[in-house]
Inverse folding.
């Protein structure tokens, strides 16, 4: 039954490594989002040719004012981090349960 304990330790360590990696990636995403929000928006400068045309000015200004796709990718990254966190938790819990099974079976073998 020592095999269950060793495998349980390995599975638990794997779960902890996945959780640590997830927390590291979440912190990296947080600092990236924080630094992106603290940067001032780029100033809008129109050259002479685009200032003469209203449609050219609107075409230049509107894409910068619309929400970017980075918000979607940030939300997707957060969702993926939650998935990895839950997987890491379940693997670590499985490792603890494997170690617990070995402890429960030991008194039965002594009788």
């Amino acid at each position: 039954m020592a095999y269950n304990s060793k495998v349980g330790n390995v599975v638990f360590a794997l779960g902890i490594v996945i959780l640590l990696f997830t927390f590291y990636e979440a912190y990296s995403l947080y600092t990236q989002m924080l630094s992106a929000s603290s940067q001032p928006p780029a100033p809008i400068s129109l050259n002479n040719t685009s200032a003469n045309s209203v449609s050219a000015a609107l075409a230049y200004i509107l894409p910068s004012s619309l929400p970017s796709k980075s918000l979607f990718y940030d939300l997707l990254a957060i969702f993926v981090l939650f998935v990895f966190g839950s997987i890491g938790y379940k693997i670590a819990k499985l490792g603890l349960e494997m170690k617990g099974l070995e402890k429960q079976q030991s008194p039965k073998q002594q009788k």
Observations:
- The two ends are 15 Å apart (CA to CA).
- The mean pLDDT is 76.
- The first helix runs from residue 2 to 38.
